[in-house]
Each structure stands twice: as C-alpha cells, then as structure tokens.
Design goal:
- By secondary structure, the protein is of the alpha+beta class.
- 44% of the residues lie in helices and 13% in strands.
- It has six helices and five strands, in the order H-H-E-E-H-H-E-E-H-H-E.
- The strands form two sheets. The protein has a three-stranded mixed beta sheet with strand order 3-4-5.
- Strand 3 and strand 4 form a beta hairpin.
- It is elongated and about 75 Å long.
- 9% of the residues are buried.
C-alpha cells in the first residue's frame, strides 16, 4: 500500500507491557487501515497522478493548468467533450511546456513522451526562425482537427513550427 503506517512502531519499549495503550493504538491502526489509508491511496491514483487520474482528477488538473475540457463536433454532428485520454494528453503537453525550456533536445523529448507510438518523431532547427517537426504517421486527434497543432506543440517564442507527416503509402 502506498501510505502504510504502523502505529505500534511509535510505542516506546518501556510501554510494551501497557496493554491499554497497546489496545488504543491497535484500534487507531484499524481505523487508519480501514478508512484513511485507502483514501490517500485513492487520492494519489485518481487525482494527483496525471497518468492515472480519472475524469474528476483530470478536471482538477484542468483547473490548475487553466485548460477547460475542450469539446468538438463528432461525425453525427453532436458536440461532445474530449475523451479522458485526449484531455490527459493536452494536460500533459501543457505541463511539459511549462516545466521545460523549448530547446531542440527538450522538444524531441517532449515529442517522444507524448507520442510513444510514433516509430519516428523528431524536431529539426531550420536555422531561419522555423523548426520542422516530423511524424512517421498522423496521430488520430490531428487527423480530425480536434487540436490546433501550433498551440499544442512546444516551440520557442517567435519561431514557427512546420509539421510534416510521412505519406501513408511509400514508394519503393
């Protein structure tokens, strides 16, 4: 368990024969094990850990990072909110952009962290105030235009990002 605590470890050796104190500590331990221990484990898993956060935890992260859950129009014309996985990806991108300088090595780490399923993904400095980002295939959320790629990707201020996707069919 993540938050394991044993109250009997706090008992001084000279009170080993104090059965009333031991009983009190055992009842406190039982209460902790049944209520608060699992509570704190759940808080960490469902809210504080962005990788495992549920919908409630993602909404807390969204408020903290000032990114409300976006909505889009699906194929049937209904306006629906982003799925938890897509929203988690947006939040993770924002968090990485806040905590890392937009250098080429950091941008490459950013891309590899957010898109682990891409066979090849990398960034190149074109030395003319632009950078080129190469994807081996087009991610699904970019196919449908759910996310503005310029806002999503990490890039230095005043530098234009040129995004390139590999062709679906290769020749040769």
């Amino acid at each position: 368990e993540l938050f394991a605590w044993n109250s009997l470890n706090s008992l001084l050796w000279q009170y080993n024969e104090a059965y009333a104190v031991q009983s009190l500590l055992q009842s406190n331990q039982k209460f902790y094990d049944e209520s608060t221990g699992q509570f704190f484990t759940d808080i960490v898993n469902n809210v504080m850990n962005l990788e495992t956060a549920n919908a409630f935890g993602l909404s807390i992260w969204g408020q903290y990072l000032k990114i409300p859950r976006p909505q889009y129009e699906n194929d049937e014309g209904e306006v629906v909110p982003f799925t938890d996985d897509l929203y988690r990806l947006l939040l993770k991108a924002k968090l990485l952009k806040i905590h890392n300088r937009p250098t080429i090595p950091n941008i490459n780490k950013f891309l590899q962290t957010l898109f682990p399923d891409q066979e090849k993904i990398y960034c190149v400095d074109n030395l003319d105030m632009t950078i080129s980002i190469y994807f081996s295939s087009r991610p699904k959320f970019l196919q449908r235009g759910y996310v503005n790629i310029e806002d999503f990707l990490m890039r230095p201020a005043g530098v234009r990002a040129i995004v390139n996707f590999a062709e679906e069919k290769y020749f040769g």
